[in-house]
């Protein structure tokens, strides 16, 4: 979710669910340790529980980056072994690490020795011509021996050559059964599934089948109200007062005002809000007003209220 789940996105999502664990976009350990880009660690205290997702392959550097994440206040440090982008491959991290489970284990060991918060891993079932039936259990065994207790498995291979990052999200077939078999093979691991999951119904089915967690990415981004507003009650069994889409828009206004006061741009926030009314009357007008107007220099909360009024009008016309 690089360039997607930034702090503005996460703040919105936290308004919709108090319980769901949120992840940062992937931050590379070289950017933090060598580049000093500590601004990439910024977040609002209301975002907890929150995991920092790191990209890297050098155990010493990842340990230092994990320390920076711990000091910044993150609840979990996650090592990404699943991203297939060209940038990630050239840096020898992300999905390419599926080819070197021993190195990943060394990275996990170094990070766990450095911090006292959870160190977790997100991976694929394999890459390129690897046989997932062989590669995935070996990978899980090695990182479990290194002390990793929680793993999220994207139930697809990644093809590092021949497919774009977008195609790697859709083209390789999903193998949920393999992930479920890992549940039986590694009962001590907390295993979550990721990939192709678009509803809470699917999430509940995976949990009922014995998995410990479900990660929903793009569907939660494109249709956040549908996915997140029901999650607290249906998945976590809490009665937390979750905001609906309209309430979330109003709750975002003070955040937007503060962001603008600090020199930020409205579009930096509202680009993450475009899907709030997905599938509802007025959704198209909502998206149009924000997309066309949020880049103006004078754009502010008034534009958001104008877009919200269009949603209300759309619903009234249908009714």
TrEMBL record:
One Pfam family, short name: Dus
EC number: 1.3.1.91
UniProt GO MF annotations: flavin adenine dinucleotide binding; FMN binding; tRNA binding; tRNA-dihydrouridine20 synthase activity
Catalytic activity: 5,6-dihydrouridine(20a) in tRNA + NADP(+) = uridine(20a) in tRNA + NADPH + H(+); 5,6-dihydrouridine(20) in tRNA + NADP(+) = uridine(20) in tRNA + NADPH + H(+); 5,6-dihydrouridine(20a) in tRNA + NAD(+) = uridine(20a) in tRNA + NADH + H(+); 5,6-dihydrouridine(20) in tRNA + NAD(+) = uridine(20) in tRNA + NADH + H(+)
Gene3D superfamilies registered for this protein in UniProt: 1.20.120.1460, Aldolase class I
Active site: 83 (proton donor)
Listed cofactors: FMN
Residue span(s) of domain DUS-like FMN-binding: 1-304
Record-annotated site: Interacts with tRNA: 80, 166, 169, 284, 287
Annotated FMN binding sites: 53, 122, 154, 194-196, 217-218
Cell membrane found in the keyword field: no
Matching InterPro entries: Aldolase_TIM (IPR013785), DUS-like_FMN-bd (IPR035587), DUS_fam (IPR001269), DusA (IPR004653), tRNA_hU_synthase_CS (IPR018517)
Top-level taxon: Bacteria
Keywords for this protein: Flavoprotein, FMN, NADP, Nucleotide-binding, Oxidoreductase, RNA-binding, tRNA processing, tRNA-binding
Role this protein plays: Catalyzes the synthesis of 5,6-dihydrouridine (D), a modified base found in the D-loop of most tRNAs, via the reduction of the C5-C6 double bond in target uridines. Specifically modifies U20 and U20a in tRNAs.
Family: Belongs to the dus family.
NCBIfam families named among the record's database cross-references: PRK11815.1
Listed name of the protein: tRNA-dihydrouridine(20/20a) synthase
Native source organism of the sequence: Pseudooceanicola algae
